[in-house]
Each structure stands twice: as C-alpha cells, then as structure tokens.
UniProtKB/TrEMBL annotation:
Protein name, UniProt field: 4-hydroxytryptamine kinase
Organism: Frankliniella fusca
UniProt keyword terms in alphabetical order: Kinase, Transferase
Keyword rRNA processing: no
Lineage: Eukaryota, Metazoa, Ecdysozoa, Arthropoda, Hexapoda
SMART domains: CHK
Gene Ontology MF terms: kinase activity
Residue span(s) of domain CHK kinase-like: 84-282
Length: 395
C-alpha cells in the first residue's frame, strides 16, 4: 500500500518474425518513507514472488486465473529506491475497487475464493513438501516485523486507537462490561499489537498475506453489465507465516458493513473453507478436512477477531477516510520518516462510527469478543511463547 503512490508505469514490446506482440508492465518503486522497514517490505515481496508463489503454483497445479499477478523482475539489493516489475493486469480489465465503499457480497466471494487458493496451496505445501515449507518459514517469520523501528512507525496509530472505546460510549457506556473489554483490548494493542495477532504458531497455520484489504486487491468487471467477475491479490510486502483466518478477518470484518455480514457471513466463510479444501485435494492431500477443519477455522477466527477490530480503526485512514484525513495521514508519514514525532487524531464520519458499533455488536453475537480474563490468558500465552522462542534462538 505504501508504495503505490510512486508507482511508475512502462511498456515493453517484443516481436517475432510474424507479428508484433506487446506486454504491458507496471513498475513499483519504493517511497522514501520508513527507512529499513520499507526495504524489508520490498525484500519480502520480491522473495514471495520469486520463491514462494511459484512453489504454491506447482504444488496446487495453479495454471489459469492465478490469484496474483506475474512478477518479471525485482531489484531489492543495495540502497533504495527498490523496484519490482509486474505484468500489468489492466489490459485484462482489472482495476482497483472503490476504496470509499464497503465491499459487497459479490466482491467478498471472489476475494474469498482467491484467498482460499493461496492458503490452500500453502497448506498443501506444508503437508506434502515439509522441507521446502520450513525453508520458507525461516524467512517469512513473524519476528521480522517485531522490531523497534516498526513499533515507532506504528506508534501514532496505536497511541490514538486507545480512544475508540470512548468514541463508542453512547452505545457501550463507561464502566459497562463491553466498554471495559474494549479498553483492555486497545490498551493491549497499544503495548504490543503482535500479541493480538494470535499465537505465533498453531494448527492450520501457513503463509498469509498479512495486509489484505480492499486496496490490496484488484477486480475485473464485465464490460456490459458492470458486474464484478474476478479478483487478484496484490502487494505481498508483509507476507508471513501465520493463521489464515487473519487474512479472512481483515477482509470480512474490516472491509464490510454489518448489513452485508448479517446476510452473507456464514456463506462467505463456507465459500472460503470449501475452496481451501478443494485446492488441497487437487494438490494431493487425501483428507484435507482433517488438516484444516471447519472447527479449526472458527477457532482461528475467534483468536484474530480482536486484531481485526483494532486494524479496522487503523485501516480507516488508508481506506475509507475523507480527503482531509488522507492528507493528514500523508503529512504524518512524512514527519515520521524525517525523524519527527507526530500525532494523528481520529476523526470519525457517521458511516465509520456505525461500522465500529456494528463490528463490536457482531463480535459479541458470535462470541468472538474476549472477556478480560480470556484476553489476559491470551496475552500471557503469547508472552510465554515469545520468551521460549527467544531462548531457543539464543542457543
């Protein structure tokens, strides 16, 4: 997401003895922001396109309608700016969806199918080629993002997000059970948002996008009817090993409104889960349901729901905010990159307030919003897991 404002476009032409063929390319160049964090993003995306995604295509026999664009070149060595060259999908009528609108059921269903192919191929690789999978896992480890620099870059968001429980006081008054839970969640996010992402490892884990939302997907539309017909996932700059449900949640919780979820939540999850199993089956997994069951997906969704709630506040600035707030965000990012502390105030517009209220209501209805005791157990378990990991690495 951070790089697209400085994307440059080029076209490369090739010919043979009989006719002229053209190939349209898009060149992504890194922005002069965030220092080493931006460099790491480009290294991860280049690694994903060069190493990981070809293996997923191979194991799951993904040939037509790949869930992602083709990468033809990446230059991430040396000082920035870094460059990644991709096949331009616009000639195939793939465009960005309107980020100012919540995703409808049709967009979500296509997104879930392509996301499931990505996750399903990763799960198949995990069980059928464990050696290869483990090599990728060493590179795409959550610890690559657990750095002081990234925490500093995220600080303006995490510091301001703690006020959300007070923004919702009209619906969930101070002192109420829900308000107390929300304060605990957002304070935990302020201290260490990685702790809310779910355990560092667990059943059904594979490689995930880790930054999936409407602005990191492209959609194809029918020329005549305007109906959405296909989807591609883009921008693998933060890909890691983690719970697949995290990607599902940042699409279906962050990028949708309550009326859509009320009508289509279960069917969209079923669409996703069925496509995961279909992809794993095609890759040679004889009993995919035992490797990634419906119950496992539900357990993961509950674990990542608090993270999705917090990210809904953060993504607001990049996805659904008005032009004034977007400009404030750009100024803040420039100050951070220049070494200046900056603050960002939350300015809610009516549909966003309704979105946050509706999301909290849904989490309560689904049993996804943890009690204070449940959250404390989750945070304690994360602390133990992280300490054990540090000790193992020190050996």
């Amino acid at each position: 997401m951070q790089s697209r404002n400085t994307d440059t476009h080029s076209k490369e032409h090739a010919s043979d003895s009989t006719d002229m063929k053209s190939l349209s390319l898009i060149c992504k160049t890194s922005m002069p922001l965030f220092g080493d964090v931006m460099t790491k993003m480009y290294e991860i995306e280049a690694y994903s396109y060069d190493k990981l995604l070809p293996q997923l295509e191979s194991i799951a026999k993904l040939t037509d309608s790949l869930p992602w664009p083709r990468c033809v070149h990446a230059n991430v060595q040396g000082p920035p700016p870094h460059t990644i060259v991709l096949v331009d999908m616009r000639p195939e009528r793939f465009v960005m969806a309107d980020r100012s609108k919540f995703m409808d059921a049709e967009h979500c269903r296509l997104a879930m199918k392509q996301l499931a192919r990505f996750h399903g191929a990763g799960l198949a690789l995990k069980h059928r080629r464990p050696g290869t999978f483990d090599e990728f896992k060493k590179v795409l480890d959550m610890n690559i993002w657990d750095t002081a620099e990234l925490r500093a870059n995220q600080k303006p968001w995490t510091e301001q997000m703690v006020i959300l429980p007070d923004v919702l006081k009209a619906k969930y008054p101070e002192g109420s059970d829900v308000h107390s839970r929300l304060k605990k969640i957002f304070e935990a996010n302020r201290r260490d948002r990685i702790a809310l992402m779910g355990p560092l490892d667990g059943p059904g884990y594979t490689f995930i996008h880790n930054d999936l939302h409407v602005n990191n997907m492209m959609f194809q539309y029918d020329k005549s009817s305007g109906a959405v017909t296909d989807c591609r996932i883009i921008d693998f700059q933060m890909s890691i090993y983690g719970p697949p449900a995290r990607d599902v949640a940042t699409v279906l919780m962050v990028c949708t409104d309550k009326p859509m979820r009320d009508k289509h939540w279960t069917s969209l999850l079923q669409t996703y889960h069925e496509e995961v199993l279909t992809t794993m089956k095609a890759a040679g997994c004889e009993d995919p349901g035992s490797l990634f069951s419906w119950a496992m997906l539900q357990d993961q969704m509950k674990l990542v729901s608090t993270y999705a709630l917090c990210m809904s506040t953060m993504y607001y600035y990049g996805l659904f905010a008005d032009d004034e707030t977007i400009n404030d965000l750009r100024e803040m990012m420039a100050k951070i990159s220049g070494g200046t502390d900056s603050k960002l105030g939350i300015k809610l517009i009516p549909n966003q307030l309704a979105h946050f209220e509706g999301l909290v209501e849904d989490l309560l209805d689904w049993g996804y919003l943890p009690t204070i005791e449940e959250l404390e157990k989750q945070l304690a378990a994360y602390s133990l897991e992280k300490n054990a990991l540090v000790q193992n690495e020190a050996k």
